[in-house]
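Appendix B, record 7
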Amino acid sequence: MKTAIITGGSKGIGLGIANALLEHGYNVVITSRSEKKAKEIATSLEAKYGNRIHGIGCDVRNFKSQLDCVESTILKYGAVDVMIANAGVGHFSPIEDMSLENWNATIDTNLTGVFHSTKASIEALKKSQGYLITIASLAGTNFFPKGSAYNASKFGLVGFTQSVMLDLRQYGVKVTTIMPGSVSTHFNGNTPGNEDDWKIQPEDIGQMVVDLLSMNPRTLPSKIEVRPTIPGGKK
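Structure tokens (predicted):
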């Protein structure tokens, strides 16, 4: 039985991926900066999935925290086969209003945080000949007003992931970045509702991850752009 770690796995895209992997027989470790939240979500899933779900409090901005997460996962399940670097934040404002705190929080989470997740799991992924998947964004190729911090973090993440893909493929480790457009989540203060039905749903990204993991090992989709079929739900 294979094991996946999902950073930021207590809600949104991360939780959608967690549910998909659990349905397909994986052990899943979800992390959140809030240990209470991670454990609450894991407990809510235990009735259906038993010991295959585990929640850990972990801040991707702290490298030791990521190392501890990987070590705890190996102690509990024996290996790390998949690292899904999903944790992310967004702060949006014109550059003259962008605070140092919001800039640093965005870069430290969305870019440096993924470096920490990757660095902490490399040796385990080499051993299992596993898979690293980063969750980027179409904001990693499409820039927009008020997006200086978010664009910088996601452009950087796309470049980082593609370089890491070239570094790790020689060890049999596959690396993919997924770049979603509009997703129905609580990101940036949104409250998902019926008006979000036109957007990509978290379970859609979960299905995409399952498809990647079940693909023949000889084939590597290294960068995937995904967007709603009809923008804004227009008919």
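Remarks on this record: The mean pLDDT is 95. The helical segments are 12-23, 35-49, 63-77, 100-128, 148-168, 202-214.
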